[in-house]
Each structure stands twice: as structure tokens, then as C-alpha cells.
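Protein modeling request. Please complete all fields; requests missing the sequence field cannot be processed.
Requester role: graduate student
Desired output: 3D structure, C-alpha cell encoding
Chains: 1
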Amino acid sequence: MQALSRKFASGLAASLLLTGSVAIAAKNPMVGGAAMYSTKDIIDNAVNSRDHTTLVAAVKAAGLVDTLKGPGPFTVFAPTNAAFAKLPKGTVDSLLEPENKAMLTKVLTYHVVAGRMTAAEIAANAKAHGGKAMLTTVEGEKLTAWKDKAGGWWLTDAKGGKAKITIANVMQSNGVIHVVDTVLMP
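Delivered output (186 residues):
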């Protein structure tokens, strides 16, 4: 009976995510084919996700590994490989060049908010502010979080670009990751 209840709960959570609702993540949700463990830090989990190899390479190139392995806490809006692939051809390669480390760092830190903000906390912040939560990134500029009519949560960047939160509340020992489908630009 307990196994059946777990299967039902997993199916319900998956259904909510597929319909655009932000659901509370399972204890060890799967991201990029790997279980994400709340006992591991952001980097130790991210390196196991096959959907985040570009992000991991970028974090290494920017010298941010030690920071994201630190105590935090951090809220990371983690773009997938497919999100990086949406950028104009050559952008990722250019950002990874040593002479562009400052710009790469700016882009990456624009995806990080100090503190641990769960989906419920983002939603409460938005509700308290007329439907939009203004989040200050570590980079210093703002992201706007908002809910669409279908119940999906989005982020709008400083340039008007939009990223959908596809997997919310991937809890880490030093924060939380929300997977996004587009790279945000400061």
C-alpha cells in the first residue's frame, strides 16, 4: 500500500509539473537523468545532470565552483543545455573564452538570488506584490517572477526575455535549484 501511495504521489507531482503548475518536488527529484539529493550542494548535484553540462562548464570557466559549493544559501535558476542552445550561434563558445570571463560571470550570477526561495515563497512574494515578485540577483539586477493563466511560473529578465520554470524546488544542502528553459540576460 505504501509503494502504491508513493507511485500516486510521484504521478501527481509529475502531472502538476506537466500541466504548468509548480509543485513541491519529490524528496530526491530526477533532473537530467540523475537523482538530486538534498544532502549534496548545488555543484555536487549539478555535475550529475546530463541536462546541465553546459551550465557546469560555464560555472567552472567563470571560477564560481567554490562559491556555489559554499554555505549559501542560494536560489539558482539553472538553464538547461537546450536553453544555452537557444542563444545565437557562437555565444556560448565566446562566453567560455578566458577574455570573456567577466561577462560570463555577469550572466551566471544573474541566475542566482541570495537566500533559499522555494516556489511557495516566490508565489507568496508575487501575491503580496500584485502578481509579480521582484527578485534581486547576485549580479545586482532584477528578475521578475510571475504566473501565467495556465499556472506556469516564468521569469522575465532585464532585457524582456522570458524563461519558464520547468522543475521547481530541487532542494540542495546550500539552497534550491529551479530549472529554467531559457538563459536569462542582464
